[in-house]
Amino acid sequence: MEKHSYEIENLNLWYGSSQALHEIKMDIPSNQVTAIIGPSGCGKSTFLKALNRMVEMVPGVKVAGNIKYNGDDILSSKYHPEELRTKVGMVFQHPNPFPKSIYDNVAFGARVKGIRKKAVLDEMVEKSLKRAAIWDEVKDRLNKNAMGLSGGQQQRICIARAIANEPDVVLMDEPTSALDPISTLRVEELIQQLKEHYTIVVVTHNMQQASRISDRTAFFLNGEIIEYAQTDQIFSNPKDRRTEDYISGRFG
Ligand SMILES: Nc1ncnc2c1ncn2[C@@H]1O[C@H](COP(=O)(O)OP(=O)(O)OP(=O)(O)O)[C@@H](O)[C@H]1O
């Protein structure tokens, strides 16, 4: 049976009195890439930030329904959201390394957890940078400031920082939209490699990207899921007219 990192049912979300998500039902398979597509303002980022409960930082937000993460109801009052912070990593649209060395960026989470041994940190930094496909480019300058890298390299450092915490899910909110085409391709290849170890959920405006890198695609419109299926099916044989109109560029 397919394992799911998330099982979501009846998810509704409001910013004040304005409803941004309506009755979302979605299972997110483990060790696959799930893409979230849809026009601007349809709720993609909101949905992503509901998965790690980051959305609750917005004043006046109300979330109702069921989000099961590895079988635990993360919206229950008994659930400690801190657990999600380590298990669910996040990568943002604009690369946001800390103004620190490459090494310190990747070692950051481990140091927060109290890990001090240099050998342990060294090994973790190397492993994470290798997994993020940037080790060869930076191994000779680990003590240089990460802000001095190109945007594409910075984004891979941010991915290394996210995976250094050994998460099992990585959420990515338009991770390549600020990158040039070559860096975009590198990050796309990386995302496909990462699914061997992590469950990936990626929000993208770019439909070619969704079709290239994802196993499943969910099409959101006005805060609802219109269609969610295998990516091949969404792009070759969509069931809903609105999906077809969107993927063929008729709106959005
Ligand atoms: N912090 C907020 N406070 C109030 N309303 C918000 C907030 N964030 C988002 N919204 C509203 O919720 C709806 C969904 O926004 P969201 O950012 O999730 O969409 P999106 O699909 O990610 O858009 P984009 O592709 O432009 O990033 C929009 O109507 C938006 O205006």
UniProtKB/TrEMBL annotation:
SMART domains, A to Z: AAA
Domain ABC transporter: residue ranges: 6-247
GO cellular component, one term: membrane
InterPro entries, sorted: AAA+_ATPase, ABC_transporter-like_ATP-bd, ABC_transporter-like_CS, P-loop_NTPase, PstB-like
Annotated Pfam families: ABC_tran
Any one biological process term the GO annotation gives: phosphate ion transmembrane transport
GO MF terms held by the record: ATP binding; ATP hydrolysis activity; phosphate transmembrane transporter activity
Domain of life according to the entry: Bacteria
Xref: CDD domains: ABC_PstB_phosphate_transporter
UniProt keyword annotations, A-Z: ATP-binding, Nucleotide-binding, Transport
Gene3D superfamilies in the cross-refs: P-loop containing nucleotide triphosphate hydrolases
Name used for this protein in its record: Phosphate import ATP-binding protein PstB
Species in which this protein is naturally found: Halobacillus andaensis
